[in-house]
Amino acid sequence: MGDIRPQVIPTERLGLVPLRIDHAEEMSSALADPALYDFIGGAPLTPQELRSRYELMLAGSPDPEVSWCNWVIQLRDEPRLVGTVQATITPAYPGPVAEIAWIVGTDWQRRGIAKEAARGLVDWLRRKPVRAVLAHIHPDHRASAAVATATGLEPTGQWHDGELTWRLTLNHDAS
Ligand SMILES: CC(C)(COP(=O)(O)OP(=O)(O)OC[C@H]1O[C@@H](n2cnc3c(N)ncnc32)[C@H](O)[C@@H]1OP(=O)(O)O)[C@@H](O)C(=O)NCCC(=O)NCCS
């Protein structure tokens, strides 16, 4: 169960590329705007801090049943990294769930990049043994709610650390 590994996911304008430690320097500059962290908490990280974080992420979950899958979002037309998507896949009843999240650098927002990346990620998850996709979104975060809606998730009415849980049940019998 905990052995799901990220793969390259091509979409129309993007490539979702499995995270590597050497992405840290470029991602540090892409995600340098403090406003990016208004809803999700945290602050911009230096290249060295991000490198350390990526090392931990790439080491994987301490729980062998859980898969941590992380991608950078690369533009196809120019070799530039503009954001990240992630999926944490956890055993659950009646089948595994993937908690997903997204972030796009301020300079590249409002071009449909988050929607395209999230759809690509969910299409990839449909081909994995995953029963449902979840996202936890601050109730005032309109952009993120729009990304979730465009990706087929719906608000559940359940709360998780002050955020509303959105869900998409996938149409296959994963177990
Ligand atoms: C949420 C986020 C990823 C959206 O990225 P993006 O690439 O600009 O999103 P898209 O261009 O795909 O737009 C998605 C929708 O959000 C809307 N939107 C984008 N920015 C918005 C803003 N600042 N205010 C209101 N709506 C906004 C778009 O109009 C679009 O709506 P539509 O589907 O009705 O047309 C980006 O704002 C971000 O990284 N925020 C900080 C990190 C974060 O909070 N992540 C969420 C974790 S769950």
UniProtKB/TrEMBL annotation:
Q: Which Gene3D superfamilies match?
A: 3.40.630.30
Which Pfam family, any one, appears in the UniProt record? Acetyltransf_3
Q: Name one GO molecular function term.
A: acyltransferase activity, transferring groups other than amino-acyl groups
Which SUPFAM superfamilies would you find in this protein's record? Acyl-CoA N-acyltransferases (Nat)
Which InterPro entries would you find in this protein's record? Acyl_CoA_acyltransferase, GNAT_dom, N-acetyltransferase
| Boundaries of every N-acetyltransferase domain copy | 19-171
Q: Which domain of life is it from?
A: Bacteria
For this protein, the record's PANTHER family field holds: GNAT FAMILY, PUTATIVE (AFU_ORTHOLOGUE AFUA_3G00765)-RELATED-RELATED (PTHR43792), N-ACETYLTRANSFERASE DOMAIN-CONTAINING PROTEIN (PTHR43792:SF16)
Specify the protein name: RimJ/RimL family protein N-acetyltransferase
Q: What is the lineage of its organism?
A: Bacteria, Bacillati, Actinomycetota, Actinomycetes, Pseudonocardiales
